[in-house]
């Protein structure tokens, strides 16, 4: 992270000037006339920045226009408390700084849109913003009108589309999360209401048992039986729907034979706890009282149902906690923006956040190599990549198919593969998918920015690579991330 006390220190280098012939070797100036090159040579100078030095800071007044002569530089933008690298280059002739000094003065102070740091000893050709703006307006008046219109138009378009896209993405994630939260919350509320009724009925049943002048030893035995049945139900293996239905029939018949009041209403409770007729027969023999059996069955049934309802509440609240944890991991609001991460945590939290959008028609297959080491990354940004890739895969399958998330090692890189069983992409579309604003979706369904953003996050922000392999029934986006921090020189 860039320190707030970093200073911009540019060292003039001898002789401090470039001659017209040297300026013509830069692609930006190669078509200029001799007179124009002479003017540039007179008004510009060369400056040197040592490795690690800050060339310009985002938000400072844009007073200079820089052209890279040698070295490697990185441009970054401040996001929250962290600096996110957007461009890293060593291409001679690239330019940055006061690149819009030619735009008409609208009273708004011109500031650097990004910070730039030298990753190795670097040298620049520098013009003042005033000189750069003047030469552009005097030498290329028609081009300036076109550039101003293009610049302002793009700014307005990008602002409107970007804001709408962020709102749409946030709305979709929020709606999905609220839907997922509502189900366990509603289940917990229903279980709590039912539990209140069962506890009240259990108190009444206990009163009736006591009023029936039950002998103390039998009441003690009944309490012991209740605990044994509850413990047995807790340890019993889960039954299939067919097995549960068959057990309900057996228990209902058993209770009918003994004239248990409302036996067919009680039987499902015992079946749910996997309590069979053998257990009830043992209970009957230990009570040795037909009159007491009816009340005991109902009382134990209330206890069983109470335990089941409490388990339902525990499961529901646990699900809510899991969803909140997934949302927290997805956003990484409580963590440093750049850190060493396990990519599987982000993949899992993204899948949870997109559960509602994935739907029941898509089978999710996870083939994780859990032995993979952590990678240096901006986790919230990578989660945006996973969101875009998974969302596109689900849409490509029209909500029905198999989504396969796979991780594995490839030399010194970690690979995340997001595959779908959709129709694939023809060559003419495949070669354009990472272009800004290119989309195959209907008007209003996409901005064409998702894969462009993903590409910039993976390649520019993490020093990785992303490409697609596609054929009908098998399309895979492969994201490669280095295990080590990118070299700074």
Structural features, described:
The protein is an alpha+beta fold and 489 residues long. It folds into three domains: 11-139, Sandwich (Jelly Rolls), CATH 2.60.120.10; 179-319, no CATH class; 336-482, Heat Shock Protein 90. Helix content is 51%, strand content 19%. The protein is built from 14 helices and 16 strands. It has helices spanning 20-24, 34-43, 129-139, 141-211, 216-235, 241-257, 263-272, 277-287, 290-331, 343-353, 355-358, 379-396, 427-430, 450-462, and strands at residues 11-12, 45-49, 54-56, 64-70, 73-79, 82-89, 95-97, 115-118, 122-128, 339-341, 362-367, 375-377, 401-410, 413-420, 465-471, 474-482. The strands form four sheets. The protein has a five-stranded antiparallel β-sheet. Strand 5 (73-79) and strand 6 (82-89) form a beta hairpin. Helix 4 packs antiparallel against helix 9 and helix 12 (379-396) runs antiparallel to helix 14 (450-462).
Low-confidence stretches: 443-449
Number of helices: 14
Radius of gyration: 35 Å
The CATH superfamily of the largest domain turns out to be Histidine kinase-like ATPase, C-terminal domain
Globally, the shape reads elongated
Number of separate domains: 3
Count of individual beta strands: 16
Q: Bin the strand percentage.
A: 15-25%
EC number: 2.7.13.3
Organism: Actinoplanes sandaracinus
Catalytic activity: ATP + protein L-histidine = ADP + protein N-phospho-L-histidine
Pfam family, one: cNMP_binding
Chain-wise SSE layout:
Elements: E1 11-12, H1 20-24, H2 34-43, E2 45-49, E3 54-56, E4 64-70, E5 73-79, E6 82-89, E7 95-97, E8 115-118, E9 122-128, H3 129-139, H4 141-211, H5 216-235, H6 241-257, H7 263-272, H8 277-287, H9 290-331, E10 339-341, H10 343-353, H11 355-358, E11 362-367, E12 375-377, H12 379-396, E13 401-410, E14 413-420, H13 427-430, H14 450-462, E15 465-471, E16 474-482
Parallel strand pairs: 11-13
Antiparallel strand pairs: 1-2, 2-9, 3-8, 4-7, 4-9, 5-6, 5-8, 10-12, 13-14, 14-16, 15-16
Helix pairs in contact: 4-9, 5-8, 5-9, 6-7, 7-9, 8-9, 9-10, 10-12, 12-14
């Amino acid at each position: 992270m860039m320190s707030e006390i970093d200073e911009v220190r540019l060292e003039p280098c001898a002789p401090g000037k470039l001659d017209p012939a040297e300026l013509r070797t830069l692609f930006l100036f190669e078509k200029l006339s001799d007179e124009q090159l002479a003017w540039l040579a007179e008004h510009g100078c060369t400056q040197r920045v040592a490795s690690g030095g800050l060339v310009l800071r985002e938000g400072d007044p844009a007073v200079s226009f820089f052209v890279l002569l040698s070295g490697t530089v990185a441009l970054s933008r401040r996001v929250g408390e962290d600096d996110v690298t957007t461009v890293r280059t060593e291409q001679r002739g690239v330019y940055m700084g006061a690149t819009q000094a030619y735009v008409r003065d609208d009273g708004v102070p011109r500031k650097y849109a990004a910070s730039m740091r030298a990753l190795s000893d670097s040298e620049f050709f520098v013009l003042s913003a005033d000189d750069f703006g003047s030469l552009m307006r005097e030498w290329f008046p028609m081009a300036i009108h076109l550039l101003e219109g293009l610049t302002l138009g793009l700014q307005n378009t990008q602002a409107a589309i970007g804001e709408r896209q962020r709102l749409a993405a946030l709305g979709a994630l929020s709606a999905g999360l609220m839907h997922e939260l509502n189900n366990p919350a509603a289940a917990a509320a229903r279980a709590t209401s039912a539990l209140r009724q069962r506890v009240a009925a259990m108190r009444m049943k206990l009163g009736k048992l006591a009023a029936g002048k039950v002998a103390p030893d039998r009441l003690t035995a009944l309490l012991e039986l209740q605990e044994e049945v509850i413990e047995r139900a807790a340890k019993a293996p889960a039954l299939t729907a067919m097995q549960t239905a068959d057990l309900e029939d057996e228990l209902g018949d058993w209770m009918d034979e003994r004239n248990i009041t409302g036996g067919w209403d009680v039987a499902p409770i015992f079946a749910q706890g996997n309590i069979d007729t053998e257990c009830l027969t043992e209970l009957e023999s230990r009570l040795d009282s037909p009159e007491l059996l009816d009340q005991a069955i109902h009382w134990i049934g209330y206890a069983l149902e109470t335990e089941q309802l409490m388990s339902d509440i525990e499961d529901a609240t646990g699900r809510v906690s899991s969803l909140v944890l997934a949302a927290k991991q997805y956003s990484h609001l409580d963590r440093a923006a750049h850190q060493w991460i396990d990519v599987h945590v982000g993949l899992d939290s993204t899948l949870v956040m997109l559960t509602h959008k994935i739907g029941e028609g898509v089978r999710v297959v996870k083939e994780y190599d859990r032995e993979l080491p952590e990678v240096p990354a901006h986790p919230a940004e990578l989660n945006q990549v996973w969101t875009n890739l998974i969302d596109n895969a689900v849409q490509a399958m029209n909500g029905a198919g198999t989504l396969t998330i796979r991780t594995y090692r490839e030399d010194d890189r970690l690979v995340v593969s997001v595959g779908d069983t959709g129709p694939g992409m023809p060559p003419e579309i495949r070669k354009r998918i990472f272009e800004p604003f290119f989309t195959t979706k209907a008007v209003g369904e996409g901005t064409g920015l998702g894969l462009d953003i993903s590409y910039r996050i993976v390649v520019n922000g993490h020093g990785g690579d992303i490409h697609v392999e596609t054929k009908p029934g098998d399309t895979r986006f492969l994201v490669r991330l280095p295990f080590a921090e990118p070299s700074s020189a």
